[in-house]
Amino acid sequence: MDKHRRKPNWSTNELEALAQGVSANIKTIRGKFSPGLTNSHKTECWREIVERVNSVNVSDTNRDINDCKKKWHDISCATKKKEASRRKEMRATGGGPAPPDDLKAWERLIAGTLSKSSVEGVEGGVDTLECVIATPVQTSDPNETSSSCFELMDKESISMMEGASASTQSFTSSGIQIYFY
């Protein structure tokens, strides 16, 4: 039985070639489809990136489009987390020296493709991981049903209302199942 062998780890040269190829073509890769930008344009762009990556590959293994897309997704997510952490530390109070800029050259290319809001979040936005839920409210208008009018509640209010701790996973209130994530 022929077992599938894993491919070798990506070399620094491959990562740099991938980051250079994607950052140079980011508008094509992330662009919305239109008569001027079709799926075949995007596929051709990825083929060129794969050729660039394979040209610097020193192993006998060649990468394909799916390998490059997956690796791009993985390294861009990791770079986004690293850059968000660095920026958060820069905004922290307490003085002291600034955090070191320890991004590698290919990570800087990736960071250049990220929007400010994707790294720092939306100014004044609501954190969806916070528990803010809607519960039905009894109204005085007979034409309104209780399911059409909702009141926002936070973890503290729910804890006091239910007599449960703030780490409650789920409960039913007024016929609505409420989940904490």
Automatic annotation (TrEMBL):
Residues forming coiled coils: none
Annotated Myb-like domain residues: 2-76
Sequence segments annotated as region (Disordered): 79-102
PROSITE patterns named among the record's database cross-references: MYB_LIKE
Compositionally biased tracts (Basic and acidic residues): 80-91
Pfam families: Myb_DNA-bind_5
Highest rank taxon of the organism: Eukaryota
GO cellular component annotations of the record: nucleus
Matches recorded under InterPro entries: Myb_DNA-bind_5, SANT/Myb
Full protein name: Myb-like domain-containing protein
Species lineage: Eukaryota, Metazoa, Spiralia, Lophotrochozoa, Mollusca
